């Protein structure tokens, strides 16, 4: 029976290692690390109309990647000449943004609160149109829509805006915020004015994009709003470069509705598994490691969600229903663009399921609890490393009753080990008799040899869930602890923590009853070495959790072992 207990413990440990290997292979792909992005001047995206949705039944439309809108027969807009083709720059406390007057697309967006890498003071570039293409486009399509044939050139009052010059307003939670509006205007030959208004709010990532159609013509204006994200096959800039290993998670499209909260769509499947559905309160996005860009149509209308590939770029977006603006009237239609870090609380408020782009895998219920615990302790101590230490202590306290029972049984196994050895020498040739005597000893001493598996089995899902928390939570990106650990989401650069973990694992094993079988004993002695090598390239925060867990376990086992030894001596004296 004891032999089966040993095999069960070994099996649990190897299952843990196997599941970690699967997660490691998923996240540490063999792709080469992306070359450091060079600072270049922002240029126009040079977007052609073939990338833009157009009106249905327009015979002149031939591009295969263009989805069809509702038929409209009315006056055709004629573009006016803009005063300047210079990009419009917007600076807030969250962003540096560049908007191309041609089409009104956001062609570059920098996140001021997130650095390019842990060794760089440059902001993280979210959207760009220089070296590679990743832009957020929007406009109006249909027969009257100016984006149907060619991108309109908007007129702008000025080419530079800052949040400091914005008007101060009060939010719903009575917090003073500044709201900056960046207007552009496009006029048709027959008197239709189309205003494209970008609304930025201090302290917030969402950008509201509103198209205001002022119909001063003699006829009815018809069209649809579209919003889309266009990206090429460039590597994920959010992944971490760790030398021979490159960390990365899912890079591709995603969409959600109130009924189907979160759905992934690989870039290669944008045509084969084409997104094509109508939904209200929906969203579309391009997801990368730690960051997400998403279009969220206004809740007032049902949007058509769609995806397509065109000329080596991937496009995912939405179209609004047909808008009719009678002569002499005006109409506003809006959508929200989010391009920033995967902050769960903000994404959850923006759209149902958008927060699930923080993908914690199949252990997401445990992972969410762990993240909430980390966030709670971080709010107290202000350091994610110490938050991991406090979370580990809390987890151990919660599991203390179950683990203590297991450790008491293991301590009794340690006490009766000499008697087990005597029985083996006495009945070694008679395995049936030895098994009977061993079972009788277990029953007499109230020992469960399988209880040694319980602590590891309880820790295994927690350990795996914490791995995903460290990999997916942008809050822990480049988060320092102390001394040489300056990024808890990356491996220990000096491998000190894995070596400490191996030492604590060895001492913990010494407190356990040692296997009587020589082969099992040899395997158990190798386990600390195997796990040390295995964890060399895992996040420092994960290794820190294991070290603290081992230290608490050592103290708990030592105390229980001493109590069991005293109890055993007292029983023997009687």
Automatic annotation (TrEMBL):
Q: Which domain of life is it from?
A: Bacteria
Question: Which residues belong to any copy of the Membrane insertase YidC N-terminal domain?
Answer: 88-372
Location relative to the cell: Cell inner membrane; Cell membrane
Coiled coil spans:
none
Q: Which UniProt keywords apply?
A: Cell membrane, Chaperone, Membrane, Protein transport, Transmembrane, Transmembrane helix, Transport
Q: Which Pfam families does the protein's record reference?
A: 60KD_IMP (PF02096), YidC_periplas (PF14849)
**MF-aspect GO terms:** membrane insertase activity
Q: Matching Gene3D superfamilies, A to Z?
A: 2.70.98.90
**A Gene Ontology CC term for this entry?**
plasma membrane
Q: Which residues form the Membrane insertase YidC/Oxa/ALB C-terminal domain?
A: 384-562
Membrane topology listed for this record: Multi-pass membrane protein
Which InterPro entries does this UniProt record tie to the protein? Answer: Membr_insert_YidC, Membr_insert_YidC_N, YidC/ALB3/OXA1/COX18, YidC/Oxa/ALB_C, YidC_ALB_C, YidC_periplasmic_sf
Q: Which GO terms describe its biological process?
A: protein insertion into membrane; protein transport
Residue ranges of the TM segments: 7-24, 384-404, 447-470, 490-507, 528-548
Quaternary structure, from the entry:
Interacts with the Sec translocase complex via SecD. Specifically interacts with transmembrane segments of nascent integral membrane proteins during membrane integration.
Name the protein family.
Answer: Belongs to the OXA1/ALB3/YidC family. Type 1 subfamily.
Described purpose of this protein according to its UniProt entry: Required for the insertion and/or proper folding and/or complex formation of integral membrane proteins into the membrane. Involved in integration of membrane proteins that insert both dependently and independently of the Sec translocase complex, as well as at least some lipoproteins. Aids folding of multispanning membrane proteins.
Task: Quote the protein name from its UniProt record.
Answer: Membrane protein insertase YidC
State the organism of origin.
Acinetobacter sedimenti
Q: Which gene encodes it?
A: yidC
């Amino acid at each position: 029976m004891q032999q089966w207990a040993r095999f069960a413990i070994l099996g649990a440990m190897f299952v843990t290692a196997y599941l970690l290997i699967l997660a490691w292979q998923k996240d540490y792909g063999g792709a080469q690390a992306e070359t450091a992005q060079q600072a270049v001047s922002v240029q126009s995206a040079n977007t052609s109309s073939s990338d833009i949705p157009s009106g249905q039944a327009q015979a002149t439309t031939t591009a295969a990647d263009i989805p069809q809108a509702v038929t409209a027969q009315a006056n055709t807009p004629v573009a006016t000449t803009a005063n300047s083709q210079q990009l419009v720059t917007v600076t807030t406390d969250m962003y540096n943004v560049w908007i191309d007057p041609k089409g009104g697309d956001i062609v570059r967006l920098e996140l001021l609160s997130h650095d390019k890498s842990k060794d760089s003071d440059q902001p993280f570039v979210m959207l760009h149109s220089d070296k590679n293409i990743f832009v957020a486009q929007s406009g109006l399509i249909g027969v009257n829509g100016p984006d149907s044939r060619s991108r309109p050139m908007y007129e702008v009052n000025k080419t530079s805006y800052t949040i400091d010059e914005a008007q101060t307003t009060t939010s719903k939670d009575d917090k003073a915020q500044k709201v900056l509006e960046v207007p552009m205007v496009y006029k048709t030959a027959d008197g239709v004015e189309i205003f494209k208004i970008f609304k930025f709010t201090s302290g917030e990532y969402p950008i509201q994009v509103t198209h205001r159609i002022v119909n001063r013509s003699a006829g009815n204006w018809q069209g649809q709003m579209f919003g889309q994200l266009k990206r090429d096959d460039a590597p994920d800039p959010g992944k971490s470069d760790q030398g021979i290993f490159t960390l990365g998670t899912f890079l591709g499209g995603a969409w959600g509705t109130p009924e189907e909260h979160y759905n992934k769509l690989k870039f290669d499947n944008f045509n084969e598994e084409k997104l094509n559905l109508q939904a209200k309160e929906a969203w579309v996005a391009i997801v990368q490691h730690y960051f997400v860009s998403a279009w969220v149509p206004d809740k007032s209308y049902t949007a058509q969600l769609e995806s397509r590939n065109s000329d080596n770029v991937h496009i995912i977006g939405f179209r609004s229903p047909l808008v009719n603006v009678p002569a002499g009237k005006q109409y506003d239609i809006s959508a929200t663009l989010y391009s920033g870090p995967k902050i769960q609380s903000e994404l959850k408020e923006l759209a149902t399921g958008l927060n699930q782009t923080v993908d914690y895998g199949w252990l997401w219920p445990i992972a969410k609890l762990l993240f909430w615990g980390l966030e709670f302790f971080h709010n107290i101590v202000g350091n994610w490393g110490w938050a991991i230490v406090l979370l580990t202590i809390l987890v151990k306290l919660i599991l203390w009753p179950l683990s203590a029972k297991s450790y008491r049984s293991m301590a009794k196994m340690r006490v009766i080990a000499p008697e087990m050895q005597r029985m083996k020498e006495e009945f070694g040739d008679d395995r049936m008799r030895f098994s009977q005597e061993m079972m009788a000893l277990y029953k007499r001493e109230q020992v469960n040899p399988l209880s040694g598996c319980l602590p590891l089995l309880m820790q295994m899902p927690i350990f795996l869930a914490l791995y995903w928390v460290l990999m997916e939570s942008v809050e822990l990106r480049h988060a320092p602890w102390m001394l040489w650990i300056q990024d808890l989401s990356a491996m220990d650069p000096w491998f000190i923590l894995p070596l400490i973990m191996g030492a604590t694992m060895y001492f913990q094993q010494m407190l356990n009853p040692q296997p009587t079988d020589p082969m099992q004993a040899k395997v158990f002695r190798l386990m600390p070495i195997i796990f040390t090598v295995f964890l060399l390239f895992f996040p420092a925060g994960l290794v820190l959790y294991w070290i603290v867990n081992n230290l608490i376990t050592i103290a708990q086992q030592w105390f229980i072992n001493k109590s069991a030894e005293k109890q055993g001596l007292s029983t023997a004296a009687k």
